[in-house]
Give the backbone structure.
Amino acid sequence: MAIDAKDLGELQKALNEAAGKASVLWTTFIIFQFYLAIAFGSVTHRDLFLETPIKLPLLNVDLPLVGFFAVASTVLLIFHFYVFLQLFGLASKAKNHNTLLTNVPDESDRQYIRQRLDVFPILQFLAGPRDQRTGFVGFSLRLIAWITLVATPVLILLQAQVTFLPYHRAWIVWLQRVTVLIDLALIWYFWIHLRSVDDPIKGVWRKAWIYLGGAGTLCVVIFSTYLATFPGEWMKTHLPEPSELQALLFEGNVDRMRGRPQSVFSNRLVLTNQSFIVDPEKLVTHSFRGRDLRLAVLNFSDLRKADFSGAQLQGARLSGELQGASFLGAQLQGADLIGALQGASLTGAQLQGARLSGELQGASLIRAQLQGADLSGAQLQGADLSEAQLQGASLHRAELQGARLSGAQLQGAWLVNVLVWRASGTPNLYLADFPDIDIHQKPWKDDETFGEWRDAIANSVPAGPLRARVIEQLAVLDPTGKKESKDLLDQRYWERAHSSQPQGEEFWGKRAMFLADLACSGRGRLADLWWGDSTPYVARGVLQNLQSREFKEFLDAGARKLFTDRLLEGKSDSTACPGVRGFTDTDWADLSKLTLTSP
């Protein structure tokens, strides 16, 4: 059939115009991907912790961090879809052009016509000369297209998810996952149309590439939806956890020298040796109210007066300068709070199984939930522990001079070598162990006065109402003070508490059952329903306390077996001991070893 040169010329002109527009769009898309890769790569854990805005180039506009991550992935997906639509139209025109050229009898004429096409790489391997569609050049052009249109967009979407993951905002992470899944579907739908008629990959090799692409797609889906999860997320708590792979990718230990996670990525914030004070002179700091900071590592940091009220800090590690910090109602189950916490507010905080060590003079722990917590060696002079729940807690060698213990629940607690001079209140000591209570030792040294000791503590607390409150809390220890609390915990109180305890085998059995009931309580209590589940933090905390050498005489051999057997029932039947839900293999191994430890 004779070819109408006018029709061929018009089609070629339309094809070149479409290629020109697609080339500009493709180049813009590559630049946009490059910008997003830099933007995501420049976001640090400090930026996530402080919610530092992202500055847009050229426009010099600050975009909120959370908003940027919510919008950027969606915009990239839409842009990618639009690029594919343009290339789809270009591929259709190229197909018509190739069909029309089949009617040109002479091969040299066909090659001459193809050489007049735009040099846009994608058009070249779709309809260019044979040497542009086959061989090494054809492979190179396809590789460029695959990198820019398939691999890079998916990798950048995954980069956005991995970068934002330590922030712990579920709906944004799920939005990022959905964009990844939709983008994969777009790639599979459109990529098959970006093929020339003489594509060198055919037959068995084409099937092999399809299988390889399917395997790659599956790996991306598994990584995005199953592996790239953060603590507390639904899939993290309800699906089997690939512990070794998860640790390698996201949950490696923190290198103490570099202060960085040893895993490839991280699903928690890791910030060490940093200051978060906005104005050092006025000591203005940041607010982290209600933030999800589970398993965060904030060691050796300056967080004075920081506000963590209502924050989720389960399993977090905080050490350094925390004077005057507020943890009002915060969830700190299994957390480590170590360092300077003078005047800190932990009222109503959830501290089940947590470890509090360091300087807590004048701190407020009113109604704090401290079941199974470890307060060994904590300096709690003048602290207020009124109505604090300390069942099964360890206060070994704790310094409680002048502390307020009114209504504190210390059933089954360990209070060996505790200093309680001028402590006051009416704590519940049923089944507690409190030998060698010291009601005489003062907190300051022999060559030091009360005023010098008090001022050293007060001066470490930010000036203002917080310092004044600490001074007021410590005033009860002033030996020159004329007033003393009417409910001082004197020698007679401790003697009466000791004589009221059960005796003999009854004592060991009741203590073991009390601790087992405490560990197995799990969800269902009002506090758990209101503040969040305390499992497995209470059980783990009690277990860790019983493992310490100081606790070796807390339960005899029979009581240890009674405690262990009760918790082991929960391994096969979660309803028998709900509190052990979430126990790791290490926890079960520690529990099995408990009865082997000689009391």
Remarks:
- The chain has 19 helices and ten strands.
- The longest strand covers residues 297-302.
- The two ends are 101 Å apart (CA to CA).
